[in-house]
Amino acid sequence: MTGKIAGSRITIEPGFHGETTITIPPGGVQGAGCVSTGFLCFWLCGWAAGEFFAVDQVIRMVSGVDKSGGAFVIGFLLFWLTGWTVGGLFAGAQVVHGLMIMFGSEQWTFEFGKLTRERRLWGIRLRRSFPMELLTTLELADLPDGRRQPPGVGRLRFKSGKRVVYIAPTATDNEQQYLADQFRELAGRCGLKESKGEGRR
To answer: Residue ranges per domain, the chain?
Structure first.
């Protein structure tokens, strides 16, 4: 494996059973990501209040406690509540994503025939495994001329079947090039027959 980048906190550690683990630390608080995540947290407070009010109103009308609205009003509230709930769930997912980028770590474990990703955030662990036989492409996407890598947007990715999986969105451009080399080498050792897609500088 190639040497570690100076100043990088990314670590590569061998295990006791032949596995190798790459750990990418949290990206930290970044301007744009911090502002958008903070705004969504504030918006979700209002969303929760609206959700509670709408659910309470529908229950009161259906049960007959509140007789001020008929079937049309109840139907409209249910329609509005459906869209409002979906919007809140989407916003909540974006908040989790933002918090994961700022405060969560990312681990990739290479074992023979399998690649496992584990995300950690405040004691919560999310694991997903990818069989090596389904991995078809590992690439470092090019940026347009003159463009810098946006915070929280990864260039390094691979395909597992029809699914596109992004690696280390918080890593710097040089770190992602370094990780591309490490992933290609380790995946080959763990049974990947062909690593299509070359890392590009």
So the answer is: 11-27+104-189, 32-101
| Phi (first) and psi of residue 139, to 5 degrees | -145, 155
106's tokens:
């990312």
| Dihedral pair phi/psi, residue 34, rounded to 5° | -65, -45
Q: Is residue 57 within 8 Å of residue 77, measured between CB atoms?
A: yes
Closest CA to 106 of 122, 94, 118: 118
Interval 67-109: pLDDT, tens = 776 788 888 889 999 999 999 999 998 888 888 888 888 888 9
Tokens matching residue 74: 């109840």
**69: which residues sit within 8 A by CB, 6+ positions away?**
61, 77
CATH topology of domain 11-27+104-189: PH-domain like (2.30.29)
